[in-house]
From TrEMBL:
Domain Fe-containing alcohol dehydrogenase-like C-terminal: 189-388
Keywords: Oxidoreductase
Entry's transmembrane regions: none
Protein's name according to its UniProt entry: Iron-containing alcohol dehydrogenase
Organism of provenance: Candidatus Pullichristensenella excrementigallinarum
GO molecular function: alcohol dehydrogenase (NADP+) activity; butanol dehydrogenase (NAD+) activity; metal ion binding; methylglyoxal reductase (NADPH) (acetol producing) activity
Length: 392
């Protein structure tokens, strides 16, 4: 295990009907005026926004609302929110929705207290020093933004998605009622499960040895997600499956299963260019990128992929040919993605293979030497090769 600091200030309130507690919970955090930020309207149609407003009213907390956070949330909405926060003297942000509404609220929360352009933080020009406090009423199990230190925003003019990972981004409150996710379209449910799996896999594929505890936590969580996703896409009203997925989305990305390991995150960086350029769902993009990334890295990391195959997918270990076991695990992962309705190729995603060089060039580099990823550091040629595997 490598050294770590794990900072997790989020209070989780989980279960049926808990959205009705939001007023009293927000009050305990000292809020006096709340901005409720939500997406394209699903939370209005389901009556959730009205229930949240009633709960805030009952707690005597003033509030204003701003809808319209789009999947792949736009910088333009963030600017609008920052202006509203300042004009209305908002002191707490409450995102109601999935990762997009939450990430948009996170960006507003730091942007409102900054004199310059909030994009400075996402482009790496500046590091934020303060943020307004924020909470979440979660309606979708996927991104894990309800307690992650991350926020991802798309710059509308360039179609570039950029993330900001800082501890200030972690929400103080996450209200999580699995029933709220039952109205999610099947495709979005599958996208969410794919993203949850990917968050665990980004941590699981590490070069750090001797992290048996988190290995086992990752493997157990992945096994539960595989099972719950199969149930939830067939029976969207299955509470237990929805509950498993919702808690898994949280622990997958708040580092409960990631501490003490070096995480990879190359697949995520490559995917962000896909969802930025084609405006596709993040989970669907990961369904295309991650298997290709695994196939590309298999020869150098055969035993790690074989462990994934045996412990997560129940494959038989072939000690004479471990590469066969490793490949069987990747194929099992792909079959699961297919089974829940995910695309596996660039074409199925609606991406044009002609754009591969541009996608590879634009992919954000996270290492000082201009490569991306820790399990295997990738340069532009590697990224192109991975995207060519996805062009099948
Ligand atoms: O906008 P509305 O009308 O609410 O509809 C949304 C949207 O169309 C709908 N939806 C959400 N809850 C629903 C529902 N529809 C019916 N019933 C419900 N209960 O689902 C669609 C997708 O919502 P979105 O918030 O975009 O999905 P998700 O939670 O997957 O978030 C995706 C965004 O999060 C970023 C992604 O890049 C992407 O931009 N990520 C954020 C991370 C983080 N902050 O830690 C980490 C992730 O790796 C990811 O990059
Ligand atoms: Zn993700």
């Amino acid at each position: 295990m490598v050294n770590f600091t794990h900072y997790l200030p989020t209070k989780f309130v989980f279960g049926r009907g808990v959205e009705n507690q939001v007023g009293e919970e927000v009050k305990k955090l000292g809020a006096t005026k709340v901005l409720i930020h939500y997406g394209g309207g699903s939370a209005v149609r389901s009556g959730l926004i009205a229930r949240v407003e009633n709960s805030l009213d009952a707690a005597g907390i003033a509030h204003v609302s701003l809808g319209g956070a789009m999947p792949n949330p736009r910088d333009t909405k963030v600017y609008e929110g920052i202006e509203l926060i300042r004009r209305e003297k908002v002191d707490f942000l409450l995102a109601v929705g999935g990762g997009s509404a939450i990430d948009s609220a996170k960006a507003m929360a730091i942007g409102a207290l900054y004199d310059g352009d909030f994009w400075d933080f996402y482009s790496g020009k500046a590091v934020p020093e303060k943020s307004l406090p924020k909470g979440v009423v979660l309606t979708m199990a996927a991104a894990g933004s309800e307690s992650s230190n991350s926020s991802v925003i798309m710059q509308e003019s360039t179609k570039m998605k950029r993330g900001l990972r800082v501890e200030l981004n972690r929400p103080l409150l996450a209200i999580m009622n699995p029933e709220l996710t039952m109205t999610l379209p099947v495709y979005q449910t599958a996208c969410g499960a794919t993203d949850i799996m990917a968050h665990i896999m980004e941590r699981y594929f590490t070069t750090v040895e001797d992290c048996d505890l988190t290995d086992r936590l990752c493997e157990g969580a992945m096994t539960a997600v595989i099972r719950a996703a199969r149930i939830a896409v067939k029976d969207p009203k299955d509470y237990d499956a929805r509950a498993q997925l919702m808690w898994a989305s949280t622990i997958a990305h708040n580092d409960t299963v990631g501490v003490g390991r070096v995480m990879d995150f190359a697949s995520h960086q490559i995917e962000h260019e896909l969802s930025g350029m084609y405006d596709v769902a993040h989970g669907a993009g990961l369904a295309v990128v991650f298997p290709a990334w695994m196939r590309y890295n298999l020869p150098k990391h055969t035993m790690r992929f074989a462990q994934f195959a045996v412990r997560v997918w129940g494959c038989q270990m072939d000690f004479e040919h471990p590469e066969k076991t490793a490949l069987a695990g990747i194929e099992a992962h792909e079959s699961w993605l297919r089974e829940i309705g995910m695309p596996l190729t660039l074409k199925e995603l609606g991406a044009d293979p002609k754009d591969i060089p541009e996608l590879a060039k634009k992919t954000k580099r996270t290492n000082p030497d201009g490569t991306v990823g820790k399990f295997e550091a990738l340069n532009t040629a590697d990224i192109e090769a991975i995207l060519h595997i996805a062009d099948r």
